[in-house]
Amino acid sequence: MGDDSEWMKLPVDQKCEHKLWKARLSGYEEALKIFQKIKDEKSPEWSKFLGLIKKLVTDSNAVVQLKGLEAALVYVENAHVAGKTTGEVVSGVVSKVFNQPKAKAKELGIEICLMYIEIEKGEAVQEELLKGLDNKNPKIVVACIETLRKALSEFGSKIILLKPIIKVLPKLFESREKAVRDEAKLIAVEIYRWIRDALRPPLQNINSVQLKELEEEWVKLPIGAPKPSRFLRSQQELEAKLEQQQSAGGDAEGGGDDGDEVPQIDAYELLEAVEILSKLPKDFYDKIEAKKWQERKEALEAVEVLVKNPKLEAGDYADLVKALKKVVGKDTNVMLVALAAKCLTGLAVGLRKKFGQYAGHVVPTILEKFKEKKPQVVQALQEAIDAIFLTTTLQNISEDVLAVMDNKNPTIKQQTSLFIARSFRHCTASTLPKSLLKPFCAALLKHINDSAPEVRDAAFEALGTALKVVGEKAVNPFLADVDKLKLDKIKECSEKVELVHGKKAGLAADKKESKPVPGRTATSGAAGDKDTKDISAPKPGPLKKAPTTKAGGPPKKGKPAAPGGTGSAGTKNKKGPETKEIVEPELSIEICEEKASAVLPATCIQLLDSSNWKERLACMEEFQKAVELMDRTEMPCQALVRMLAKKPGWKETNFQVMQMKLHIVALIAQKGNFSKTSAQIVLDGLVDKIGDVKCGNNAKEAMTAIAEACMLPWTAEQVMSMAFSQKNPKNQSETLNWLSNAIKEFGFSGLNVKAFISNVKTALAATNPAVRTSAITLLGVMYLYVGPSLRMFFEDEKPALLSQIDAEFEKMQGQSPPAPTRGISKHSISGTDEGEDGDEPDEVGTDVVDLLPRTEISDKITSELVSKISDKNWKIRKEGLDEVAGIINEAKFIQPNIGELPTALKGRLNDSNKILVQQTLNILQQLAVAMGPNIKQHVKNLGIPIITVLGDSKNNVRAAALATVNAWAEQTGMKEWLEGEDLSEELKKENPFLRQELLGWLAEKLPTLRSTPTDLILCVPHLYSCLEDRNGDVRKKAQDALPFFMMHLGYEKMAKATGKLKPTSKDQVLAMLEKAKANMPAKPAASAKASSKPMGGSAPAKFQPSSAPVEDSVSSTVEPKPDPKKAKALGVSSKAKSAQGKKVPSKTSLKEDEDKSGPIFIVVPNGKEQRMKDEKGLKVLKWNFTTPRDEYIEQLKTQMSSCVAKWLQDEMFHSDFQHHNKALAVMVDHLESEKEGVIGCLDLILKWLTLRFFDTNTSVLMKTLEYLKLLFTLLSEEEYHLTENEASSFIPYLILKVGEPKDVIRKDVRAILNRMCLVYPASKMFPFIMEGTKSKNSKQRAECLEELGCLVESYGMNVCQPTPGKALKEIAIHIGDRDNAVRNAALNTIVTVYNVHGDQVFKLIGTLSEKDMSMLEERIKRSAKRPSAAPVKQVEEKPPRTQSINSNANMLRKGPAEDMSSKLNQARSMSGHPEAAQMVRREFQLDLDEIENDNGTVRCEMPELVQHKLDDIFEPVLIPEPKIRAVSPHFDDMHSNTASTINFIISQVASGDINTSIQALTQIDEVLRQEDKAEAMSGHIDQFLIATFMQLRLIYNTHMADEKLEKDEIIKLYSCIIGNMISLFQIESLAREASTGVLKDLMHGLITLMLDSRIEDLEEGQQVIRSVNLLVVKVLEKSDQTNILSALLVLLQDSLLATASSPKFSELVMKCLWRMVRLLPDTINSINLDRILLDIHIFMKVFPKEKLKQCKSEFPIRTLKTLLHTLCKLKGPKILDHLTMIDNKNESELEAHLCRMMKHSMDQTGSKSDKETEKGASRIDEKSSKAKVNDFLAEIFKKIGSKENTKEGLAELYEYKKKYSDADIEPFLKNSSQFFQSYVERGLRVIEMEREGKGRIPASTGISPQTEVSCMPAPTSTVSSIGNTNGEEVGPSVYLERLKILRQRCGLDNTKDERPPLTSLLSKPAVPPVASSTDMLHSKLSQLRESREQHQHSDLDSNQTHSSGSVTTSSSSTANIDDLKKRLERIKSSRK
Fold first, then answer.
1. How do residues 1172-1206 score in pLDDT, each as one tens digit?
2. Distance between CA atoms of residues 643 and 346, nearest Å
3. Could you please report the per-residue DSSP string of 1944-1970?
4. Which of 458, 586, 1400, 1767 could share a disulfide with 417, CB 3.0–4.6 Å?
5. Alpha-carbon distance 1352 to 1330, whole Å?
6. pTM to 2 decimal places
7. Which is nearest to 1049 in space by CA: 1027, 1023, 1020?
């Protein structure tokens, strides 16, 4: 015993593992006690024993094992963690317990297994038990079967999966062990109890004896449905409920449950699918085509054997079906036809839904084969077509069936009707909607009148079945015209019908004896139409609402009972029973007279045809009185109207009598029971009178009354056909007008659109314009009801007509049709009918597509074409596809039968050539549009393969596939796609692309559906595997789709489906499900559907009340609205009320209203500051993400809770976007009233708005942007400045949106960015936008770059951060971008900088590739520099603009989104500047100065301070009153107010749309023609001219080449342009503003136009060219002469250089130059000669003499010589002083040429300088020859050369030069040394100073230090040119010149005689004087602009620039200032 005591001391767990059995026994007993004591199932104690449980059951000692089993059972029952041990313990039980001889052990083992099932581990247990069935030990097998049986018996078939058990049953029956076989029998009986006959097919192959025994046992089973006796833990409350119910004696709910449960198992599901395609005989396809019927028979028999398998594996059966179809359709041997039909039956039964895709091909063939008489063939065909029907839906095959209904063969008609009847039996009210019923009923009604009795009977049976399925209310409207006998027959048939769906039949069986539903249902479930059952489950809902109906309509279609418009509308049908004599026989005239005389006075009847009109009139009056007094029932309408029609009838000549007559007709129609027969008697007469001026209105009134009595659709049809069968156009147009009006009054219900359309087309083709107008008006009214699809009927009309129709439709867009006021009151019995009427238009909307004439194209799809499409050579395949596209295009709308095309196209979807795949996808898109909703039947065979293409690796192919799938889904709806396993099979494929695209697509589509097929659940396992996919995108898409799956399947189903996942996965997925549950959207409500379905806003008003309550539930802000609407349209509207009650209890809405009264934003003191601190201290997440994660949203929610009203917050964070829209609307309303609140919560508001940027819904985005615009306007008015925190958490997200594909959005975002600059410094905005340029989205890059350009243009270079260099380098990178738009934007931005900053740009952007550089240079050349680019100027312009904020902003928003140039954006960014702009700028500059402390150069280049001093200096000089200044204020105001408007209009001049351009030009023309307004254009001239020549270029290149454009339009545009320009160039002040570059381009455009041969061919062409001639002359005369001359020279140079340019072009340019030469004598003084000579110099550099001489024409050289000659003649030797701008004169022959000319002219006429300077005649007279002069000078130079006489020589030279200022001393200096030259010059200057007076020396010394850099003697005057050594005369003229400039700058008048100063070098001290003059010009640009006054637009002449520069530098000390003043005084006195 010693060792005993040892183990007794051990703890329990060690005892349990002891090797002594006693120890173990004791341990197990103790464990059992412990287990019984632990009360809490979740106690941690349990976990200690987890490892023991397996040992407990598998102990080797039998006694111990028993105790172990007991303990294990208690553990499993009570421990929370027991489930973890399932697998190991059950496998232990199976292997170690079930083989024990002791029964007790086995029982405990079974109990443990069942207990595991109870704790939800059924699947694991079942798996282990099934493994046990393969054990070699029969004992174990028997015990396993027994356990399974008990489990099934207790838990039921929902918990125990039967399929795997049934699978092994046949094997168990074959076992050698009797015990196994017996146990198998018992379990088979148990299974049968649960699933009944579904068990038969799987067991059909077992031993017949066994089967017989089973049958006997099965029969004994009770009939009632079994119930589980034991429940899972999670269901145990349910069990308790059940017990209570049973004690109460009613198990209603239980029964209901079982109803669901029983049909869950379908025999088909239990079977193994067999693959048969590979088993087909190898030669099958040859044999089936064989000549001998025996061979064909063999082939078919082989198939027959294979298809006997009850379940077939899915595969491509297309070829097999095609072969069988061919036999059925074409084989002459009827036996084979029957055999092939059997094979098809087998396929359909074996494949079920998977056969659906072939159904469409086979059905027509089978139906047509019913012409066979042989019963066996007919029976085989019937079986086949019935089996096929079950694989598809009635909808899909309806087209084919209806087509066969018109067959002449009576057997075909009979069998088709019988097939329809059988099909209807399988339908329920929901699967047989009105839209389907209507065409079938129409076809069957024809058959009930057939001559063949069997056809009639079959039709009766079909109609009877329909009546039974959907109830009388739905069918009666279609049976309105059926006589009583036939109606009774139909009802009798309906009584006999047995429906497949017994349970549903109960709905219609109210008045019949009730049926034994439950048993029947069980079998029907087995028959397998699961889907229909599930769909119909919600049926009882609608029923309760309308107790009168026999069958509720399907939820999907709204109320089904609305009549369908077989030419008559619903209200008439309801009238049917009330007024029986509506169908009235035609009476003879005698009877009519008799009846009339009974009710009318005798005199009245006698006088009817009196010849005296007065008597007739009196008679009519009596007639009217009599009618008015008559009672409805007694009024013989037909007799009365016959009397009225009696001679003279409608030919009555007196209008009074006629008016009376027509009035009486109206009265009779209103007061009597007026029949169509009566109507027919009068309508002809009415139509005849409708066009009559006097009687027309009465005729219309009568027609309306008749329409009310006989229904509008019928009346309208009659009236239209009568009107168009006669010739009178007035009648036709008035009839159309009446009809337009009538439709508005009566509504559109029941009208036959098709019939109308043919009449409307006739009317549109009428010659009379009134008829056409009326027809178009009628179309407009129809559009209201039918929607955009109406246009399809008129696609082939002439373009002009079509545009009129479109314009009419445009007017109607967005309007909703008026509520019908007539045609309802009289007949509608109650509110409900009204509702049904309301559905009508909805139906019309959808049906209109069916009215389109569809072409049959199957005959064009030949076998050659199909083989082409599948050819080996891709080119031939492409040809085939092209042909198909052509066929579809041509046909426009096609019938659904497209022959072999689907298979052919399907093959191309996986073509190796991706281009063909894309082409195929395009064809499939076309196909969807062309075929319309009928494309449904191709979803399975063509739609699903498109989805496969979503897995393609190429992005563009996937995009095309997605577009195609969407195009299809638009036509088919989603049901077809989701039915069956196809979609889940696609999702199963592990292709990441396919998965993400498909899930994305589902996530988009599922939320819009109100119900989905049950097959959606099949996708769930694959959805779960996608949640754990390796690819991140797939995971994300799967997560996004999760809530939408849950929305349809419910959380429970989804959670249950996780059962099969691995434990780790399961936990993850369940967590995601929980999350999704929170975000699960509500299913879309009925109203949403109702309003979205009608096309083109066609929901008529009467249709809306039913949807109003639903809106209520969604929108609390619209509450009060629906009531008046309801009252108006619905009268009582019981339905609406009940709906409202159900949807939204009115109490809550009131309560909500109260809540919403307070402010929406609560001001929390320091709230914002605290939030910023939190973010800085990292207490909360920084607002920074690529897509918003949940934690960000949650964080924002919590932050908002304290400062946003609770109800608003709920709207803001709702999962449905419509609530976001509502929130935004509320925020907009409260924006003004709660400014402080908004600013206090601004950071949160902006963050919430960034979340909206990630929404996919456009409406939310548009609303958000709208709000932002208002918000930033408010902030700028409040002078608020955004904090860094607000900016950084908002701007980056806003910038993301600038790349949106939609223009509207991009425009809005740009507008917001512009407004932001008013509340946040532009320099800080810059880096954010810069970041945006790095996006992958090319649109975003382009827009950001443009925005950067606008910033630079508006705020100058200072905005470029961190430094201009870095910023520009980054921008320049984009010049090489792939995307054209980005390249352009980058170039434009750099050009903008160039315009502001000049040549320095090139330094800043650093090195670029050659290609990029050339692009940039080209762009800079092209862009004319706009005068307004200087930032300084804009700053001055800003303040006055505030007044025009609103008007401008609005105008800009409305303006078309055409060429929004940077100008416009700039205007936008400035409109609405809240404070004086200078202030803002100063702030910015301060900021920047701090940042860029080290950057000295920048400050150097801005001598603004000095300039300000300058103004002070010259103030005293301004003695006279400044003239221009006086006008200035008015001008300035006007200028700035209108500036942005003008900018906008000018931007439209260059529009691509001719009309827009013409409008803009007319507006500008108005301004130019009014003198007082014309000056508003000042400052915009260049811009306007640029827009104009862009338009000229556009016309030349685009419009003229466009065949479609009317040439008159172009001529009109030309006239506008030319007219405008002529107006402009008549106003000299404006004309002079045009700059050189612009003038050059303008002249280029005009000359090109003059030479355009295409213009000459037009009628008005010559006129245009003449006008252009006139305009060119104006331009030459009025423009700034320097600019135009310069422009012409450059143009000539370009045209001579360009090889493509025509010689004529150059010739015309030269003609212009000659004209200018002729003008020179008058204009020479106003010309800046230096610039002209510079241009000539450049010209001669490019074209030296030799090159010019090579030209074909001698004109260029002659032109140049003439120009130079004229200049020399006019200017004389002074011309040589004007070469200052030329750097290197030796580069061209200009100087030499001028010298030659001068000498030549001097030789001829002597020196002209005397006359010029008026100094008197020269002492050396003119005749002194050249030699003398030379000798004279030689003498002088000798003197200078000798030491003694130097001074004397210099003095003589000075005298000589003074007299002959143009004398040439160059030759004498040329050969001397540099020193000698300088010496001579310096000497001359000293003498000049001595003689002219001493006062000038300081000035020169002030300047000389700078000039001496050039190593030459410093000139004494700033004006003499360096390098010009011909000792020029320096006199008062220099100072005069300077004074002139100063006067000009200060606004004083000047004479025209300006001579520009010559030094460009002194203007800017920082730049050494060696730079070329062109460089100078560029670098001066910005300075020039700053120095210029705003109102003074002068050119790029160097004068101001240079002068201001020189003065600036010279006046740096006070001495200089005084000096200057003295000098000015002196000049003035000398002039006097």
1. 888 888 888 888 888 888 888 888 888 888 888 88
2. 70
3. HHTT----S-------SGGG-TTS-TT
4. 458
5. 12
6. 0.39
7. 1020
